[in-house]
Amino acid sequence: MSTYIGPIRDMQFVMKELAGLDEVAALPGNEEVSSDLVDAILEEAGRFATEVLSPLNHSGDQEGARWSEGAVKTASGWKEAYRQFSAAGWTAIAAAPEYGGQGLPKLLSTAVMEMWKSANMAFSLCPMLTGGAIEALMLRGSDEQKSLYLTKMISGEWTGTMNLTEPQAGSDLAAVRTRAEPQGDGSYKLFGQKIFITYGDHDLTDNIIHLVLARLPDAPEGVKGISLFAVPKFLVGADGSLGARNDVHCVSIEHKLGIHASPTCVLAFGDKGGAVGTLVGEANRGLEYMFIMMNEARFAVGMEGLALSERAYQHALGYARERVQGTEAGVRGGGKVAIIRHPDVRRMLMSMKSQTEAMRALAYVVAAATDLAHHHPDPEVRAERQAFVDLMIPVVKGWSTENAIDVASTGVQVHGGMGYIEETGAAQHLRDARITSIYEGTTAIQANDLLGRKVARDGGQAIKAVIASVRQTAAEAGSLDGPAFKAIQNALADAARALEQAVDFVLDTYGTDIKAASAGSVPFLKLLGIVAGGWQMARAAIVARNALASGKEQSSFYQGKIITARFFADHYLSLSAGLSHAVVYGAAGTLDLPEELF
Amino acid sequence: MKILVPVKRVVDYNVKVRVKADGSGVDVANVKMSMNPFDEIAVEEAVRLKEAGIATEVVAVSAGIGACQETLRAALAIGADRAILIETDAELQPLAVAKLLKAVVGKEQPQLVICGKQAIDDDANQTGQMLAALMGWPQATFASKVAIADGRATVTREIDGGLETLSISLPAVVSTDLRLNEPRYATLPNIMKAKKKPLDVTNPADLGVDVAPRLSTVKVEEPPKRGAGVRVADIAQLVDKLKNEAKVL
Fold it and tell me: Membrane-crossing residues (chain A) (predicted)?
């Protein structure tokens, strides 16, 4: 089975030389953050990912989480791994210091999170969902809720869940029917059924804090009548002690295509008299609170796309170096060679490598921008960075997860017939990746968000600022010598033009023919992803070139960056024109066929 | 009691090493580096002795390029109190390292040096022994259990025939075997604290040590590829092959 090794060199490069670690470290509250500290944390997280989480990835997939008698048993090794994970303090990396967190910047916690997800995505979902619940309680919880729950959730002693979906309420949360009845003492009793609840039950910790969307008796219809409640698995006394078992039970778990070791639960609230909960924040504002956390959650799922791509790449690369098959094209009498010598295997590996690096560059740049948007002293900088983050969140989510499916599928292909055999392990990455473009808002939901809220609403202001920056980078690349930089300049300039054309179409059509605009929304999202990824790869190539010119160590790393950026330019940026065409001219073909002809 | 723990920065044990095309050595460009696993066991043992109230201070020391600071920070994150880097770009061989350590021992006056039995890159298994000889101290190598009491160390060693227990007087050098302990994972708060612990940098010249190599590497090559297996007809043929071809019987 393949061993995952954290791509720490590339992470360091992106954080320090592309995303602006220095600028993030200079923000108030980040006084302890330095280049050395980042190295030390990445090293140790990488070690934990390699030695503890990665070995359980395949066995967890094979064994899966089990349900019996109303309780979930996690796969072998999970409990001990979770104990070590929380004992080492990893659950607290980004959380608030006043409740025991380390309060480290998002740029750093993002790189660490990537390693958990690469090493063992099914495991990583537990702390990720807990992180979402922590965030919700931090933002809107009462003092009492904070003091009862937060310290233990941040230390990892308890976990948290997010309960949104019901059978009739998937992407459309307005249809939520779970009810909450006030008990007159400030508490509520909840009744209803939630589905697709990640780690909704497990044997890793003594308690689980469920955050649940439900309706109050007098709530208005639709999205404005949904409130958020905190419902613990075991009731918690004022002194923090565990009390009676609450009336929330896992009645079954789903059998899924991937992430087998992550229990996806059906939770029944109130079958035996009502699940006791408390209101989080104000009544009827639950969905609004969920949206505050949506950026965070969507970004995290985008990171899963990146993380699984990296894992699939490492797996395929290891095989391509080892597997001997055939002779090298154009070499007579050279004997049998490892398949990495075959041009198309190289193309596949380069496609995996370049897409993964482009996704990482974009995701970390967005993470750094998030830190600036939250903590920069200048409100203008905060607003500008926030606009960039808002624009890019659906791209990081939608583009990276769609890519991951492609990259993991290519990983299977590199293995040939062995890739189709489960024992090889390459297929797991593809199965695990498949959910990422679905949950936390499908690609279409991301694309609608991008078109409506992020492009049309501000009249294209944020995206045009990006296009201007892309052009600047293209010009900068063009000023450097060598065929690689010429290729990058041309591809990037053409891609910027293609994107601009698509943006103009969206701005013209969104208000007048929303169906035509929406029909091209996913190609539009992919187009922006490719341009943004290619932009970051071009920046990386320029940085690498300057590093080489200044005689920095590790020249082979920087040379590799330039070649990889060029590959991305020729193989992916070149797709921009086609995607732009699909956006601008594709609506007729999508919408004209009468429904009965399907 | 003060304990000195030498640590070495080596290619991470998960990395599949590749020999350079010109056969001059192993390719370490863009390769993940980590603390030698046996040294990690040594740090862990020293920190446990401190936690047990037996040791008062644990000092980690490394010799090599500036990047060895990362390795020292890792030792500090496990629980060492402070660190010393002997910075040099020169190729260091076991005797040179032993001499450098002798100079540090002279300054620091530890009662115990705990080191890894060997480094996983060159597998020399010499530095600890050389240091003990240069100091004129007792040594106990390949320790699987260490107990300190009354100015003596009782060390259980793994030998071919089983376990051997030695009692040596301090100061002494102990080298660690794999089963001595299972090193902990550094916690995030301790990684952050490690940053604030003192790390002094010195160099071979300041310590008055000549580190010029005494050995030269002639050639580095990959081990021969394993050949295909054969099916034997019967036990007699197997025994014959083991005797006459493999020559193991």
Answer: none
